[in-house]
Amino acid sequence: MGINRKITNNSNFKVFVVIGVIVFGGMALTSIIDANYYSEKNQLTEYRLFILIAAAVYYICLAYYEKQGNKG
Predict the structure, then answer these.
(1) For the whole model, what pTM was predicted?
(2) 61/58 Cα distance (integer angstroms)
(3) DSSP 8-state code for residue 42
(4) Mean pLDDT of 53-70
(5) Are 31 and 48 in contact, with CB atoms under 8 Å apart?
(6) In the chain, how many H helices and how many E strands?
(7) CA 38 to centroid of chain Cα atoms
């Protein structure tokens, strides 16, 4: 049972990493493609800062999740 649990947790971890890359990568790509829209409203820096902070929080939570999963 322990081996299967670690494989499942590792698979879940990889899925969450891919989801994070897609979500935050898409947001970053949007900020590049629509830079004129955000810069007209003087929000480009704020939007990119939000993306960085949100991604950092997401991956910190994900690392905590992985650490908790490896204890058992």
Answers:
(1) 0.77
(2) 5
(3) T
(4) 89
(5) yes
(6) 3, 0
(7) 22
